[in-house]
Amino acid sequence: MLFENKYIKLFLIAGPVLVLDQLTKFIILKTMLLHDSIPVLQGFFSLTHIHNPGGAFGFLAGQSPDVRRLIFIFVSFVALCLIFYLYSTTPRSYSLLATGFAMIFGGAVGNLFDRVRLGKVVDFLDFYLGNLHWPAFNVADSAISIGMGIFVFHLLFKKMPG
């Protein structure tokens, strides 16, 4: 029963992250043209439809599409295996850490779906102050960042399992 409950929690966290990520990207793709921008909070936040063919912050964006696709699908698969292993070996008493790993897993699957389907990732959350822009991101990126924040918190302030 312990084995099943642990993986049900992974599904209950990663699943909604994946669904919300793919749903929001679907809405953006169906309702906004590429590079369209809708101000939400003037001077701070817009919904801006962009595609990121590279990795974080456009990493490898200048490489050929086939090379990028192979590299990012391979790296995503390896990362998913690592996160699944970390989640699987996290004791039940480290519930917050397991939640962080599940968020990372759901976000990684969401961005992997984009890479397999489109060869790039759909981004649309655009935060800025004047001309200073943070690179646009999506729900999957948010879940990955929150999950990594939880992981770093455990590394710095709590005893890690094992």
What can you see in these coordinates?
By secondary structure, the protein is of the alpha+beta class. The chain has one domain (2-31, 57-122, 131-157). 60% of the residues lie in helices and 15% in strands. α2 (65-89) packs antiparallel against α3 and α3 (95-118) packs antiparallel against α4. The two termini are 22 Å apart.
Helical content stands at: 55-70%
What global shape is seen? Answer: globular
* Rounded mean pLDDT score: 91
Q: Walk across the major sheet and give the strand order.
A: 1-2-3-4
Low-confidence stretches: none
Rounded radius of gyration (Å) = 17 Å
Query: How many alpha or pi helices?
Result: 4
What summary fits the major beta sheet? 4 strands, antiparallel
β-strand amount: 5-15%
How many domains make up the 3D coordinates?
Answer: 1
Give helix and strand order, one letter per element, not per position. HEEHHEEH
Measure the end-to-end span: 22 Å
* Category by helix and strand content: alpha+beta
Count of beta strands: 4
